[in-house]
Amino acid sequence: MDKIWEKFVRIAEDNDGVIRTSQVEAAGISRPMLKKYMDLGKLERIRKGLYILSGEVADEYVLLQAQNTKAIFSYGTALFFWGLSDRTPHILDVTLPQGLNATVLRKNNPNIRCHYIVNDLYELGITELMSPQGGTVRLYDKERCICDLIKDRKKYEIQLYQTAIKEYMSSKEKNLSRLIEYAVKLGVRDEVMMYVEVMI
């Protein structure tokens, strides 16, 4: 068995099917091996620096985050992942730290909407979940999603807004102390408390 190919397979298995050039180099494999296995029809290049095993289908959500590891699924996309919205997102919402250049990410993914947040609040509520296609993705937890939604409520349709808040408040898995903690940090404590008092 080809030892180098085994390493490629292992990298793919450990990363939800996506292989990055940096991971190949970290595994001690030289870059020319990428071309060799593409020529053999074993590897397929899907973006600059990103590959999959031939015949496999990349999880589009994992693929997007492989292009920019700072992109965190948020807003409508994260609400859908959490089951707080029944709308399949056609535009993928991601949040990035303020000042990060996302030109290449936007160019390669015309269906994304980028939100920017100061570094101090960027990591608040980041967690992991399985995407609808089965890969592991990073997104904001339910409480962060609800606070973001309330903070930017004028940008969203009333139906999406009301459904998400109603679903969250009626959920057994809600964490109100975390919700209020985030609300204070994100400057929406009064608005969040109004929903908590009315709906609980």
Report on this structure.
By secondary structure, the chain is α+β, with helices and mostly antiparallel strands. The protein is 48% helix and 18% strand. The protein is built from eleven helices and eight strands. A three-stranded antiparallel beta sheet has the order 1-3-2, with helices on both faces. α6 links the parallel β5 and β6. α5 packs antiparallel against α8 and α10 runs antiparallel to α11. The termini are far apart. 30% of the residues are buried.
Please compute the radius of gyration using only Cα atoms. 20 Å
Biggest beta-sheet profile? 3 strands, antiparallel
Structure class: alpha+beta
Unreliable runs = none
Distance separating the two termini:
61 Å
Key phrases:
single chain; 200 residues; alpha+beta; three-stranded antiparallel beta sheet; three-stranded mixed beta sheet; 11 helices; elongated
Quick synopsis:
The chain is of the alpha+beta class and 200 residues long. It has helices spanning 3-14, 21-26, 32-39, 60-67, 75-81, 103-108, 119-122, 142-151, 158-170, 176-185, 189-199; strands spanning 19-20, 43-47, 50-53, 72-73, 92-97, 112-117, 126-130, 136-140. The termini are far apart.
